[in-house]
Amino acid sequence: MTASHATTAETVPALLATIQEYRALQQPLIDALRRIHDDMETCRSGGDEWASEWMVQVWGDLPLAVRAAAGDQDAAQELADQTRHASPAA
Hints:
Elements: H1 8-45, H2 49-57, H3 64-69, H4 73-86
Helix pairs in contact: 1-2
């Protein structure tokens, strides 16, 4: 290996550090999604038509795993069902 190429010993710690940085960024995003979901559910249950439309048109288009991580219990159940059906029988 030439001097211009990084060795595995040099790159693995850098890659692990990057992964940890991305994980640290993930939690604030999940927290924000939970707050949005909770606020929109509160508005929708209070009769807000715009919130109802938003839940169908915007929230419903988010990936299932994102909705589940944000506290959407229906999405979490659907994701669990998909995981169970995709798992080979024991």
